[in-house]
Amino acid sequence: MIAGVDEVGRGPLAGPVVTAAVILSPDDPMLGQYRDSKKISEKKRLKIYHHIRQHAVSFAVADASLEEIEQLNILHATMLAMTKAVLKLDVSPSSVIVDGNRVPQGMPAPTTAVIGGDDSVQQVAAASVLAKVVRDRLMRAYGFQYPQYQFAKHKGYGTKAHMDALQQYGICPIHRKTFAPIAKLIK
Which of 25, 33, 138, 184 has CA 20 to 30 A from 156's CA? Predict the structure, then answer.
């Protein structure tokens, strides 16, 4: 019962960071085929997302809010969200593998960090897909709420279109005020 954990959204200038934890079934017909969510198309990600939700032993998604990001910093907020996701699993994992080089505090089982785990560990790759689909959907919803920023297109990352919108309209409530480009605009 290995839980894989990954995050999406550490780098953007807006929105929460989203994490997922997944325990895959040894009978999963897709076992061995999961890949880092950034390396597959959106259409394929959605198919895999639904497959994971139907076939995983357990899965959970959590986030770190803007307030947590601003208060703790992005690294610590991400670690908190990873721990939240594992604690939300309805099956206790025997061990946890997180993508990256740091182990979050408060994990309920022995935890290992694996750099590039989202491309080399099936459970982590599956978590990557869940977290990306959930965060992308959330950013699309913010795109309807704040259409001038085009969040559906760039998901809050600092693209030219996003930076141009920030210059024209200023910030909105989902922008991360402690991130350098946003902090400069506020000053």
Answer: 33
Q: Which residues are paired to 122 by β-bridges?
A: none
Dist. CA 136–CA 17, nearest whole Å: 11
Which pTM does this prediction carry? 0.94
Number of structural domains in the chain? 1
Q: What is the pLDDT of residues 29-63, one digit of tens each?
A: 888 889 888 899 999 999 999 999 999 999 999 99
| Distance, CA of 94 to CA of 111 (rounded, Å) | 9
How would DSSP label each residue in 5-62? Answer: EEEE-SS-SBS-EEEEEEE--TT-TTTT----GGGS-HHHHHHHHHHHHHH-SEEEEE
Question: Which residue's entry shows tokens 């198919």?
Answer: 47
